Amino acid sequence: MKVVAFNGSPRANGNTAQSIQLVLAELKKEGIETELIQLGGRKVFGCLACGKCWENKDNRCARQDDEMNTFIRKMQEADGIIIGSPTYFSNVSTEVKALIDRCGFVSKANGGEMLRGKVGAAVVSVRRAGSNFVYSAINFFFGVAEMVIPGSSYWNMTLALEPGDVQKDEEGIQTFQTLGKNMAKLLKQTRA
Ligand SMILES: Cc1cc2nc3c(=O)[nH]c(=O)nc-3n(C[C@H](O)[C@H](O)[C@H](O)COP(=O)(O)O)c2cc1C
């Protein structure tokens, strides 16, 4: 059983990454394999709306000038997917939006089988406001992809500004640890 996580912040060890690690630690305790992919700051482009994925039906994006197909393959192969994003102007980071649009469209173009039934969890960091929108944007993607979503004791977010501030956010830490436990439980119930 494997979970792939994407850090959508360009800060490789910022609050989003550290929050994801809290979730991954709980998954590892339950014997679940994990992989963290640094997405933020990578060269990824938006969807071209060329429609070629609907013609080719090969589970891949026709756009070949970035690493998106590697990320799509990682999602296809995983049982669970974590998408972490900082809050940028009340929204997901640009890289996370590109991942959602292109992976989501490729999945739909191929009948939806690529993501259906996988377990998905959002991880959000925010200084002050806008995290609910980011949480929603990621969960809208999981929902329309027919994935299943574990809950936690609070919405999956940390109030943090400078890298590492998450470690001072006791409730945030608790929320991510509970999310990890619940995600592991759901994975075992649905993917074993
Ligand atoms: C371009 C940009 C836009 C941001 N927009 C918001 C915002 O809308 N609301 C907010 O509370 N924090 C905002 N922040 C702060 C980040 O969400 C916050 O510092 C977060 O912890 C960063 O996560 P990271 O350490 O993983 O990069 C913004 C930061 C940047 C760089």
UniProtKB/TrEMBL annotation:
Pfam families registered for this protein in UniProt: FMN_red (PF03358)
Lineage: Bacteria, Bacillati, Bacillota, Negativicutes, Veillonellales
The NADPH-dependent FMN reductase-like domain, residue ranges: 1-158
Protein source organism: Lucifera butyrica
PANTHER family: NAD(P)H-DEPENDENT FMN-CONTAINING OXIDOREDUCTASE YWQN-RELATED
Single Gene Ontology MF annotation: oxidoreductase activity
Alphabetical UniProt keywords: Flavoprotein, FMN
Protein name: Nadph-dependent fmn reductase
UniProt keyword annotation of Flavoprotein present: yes
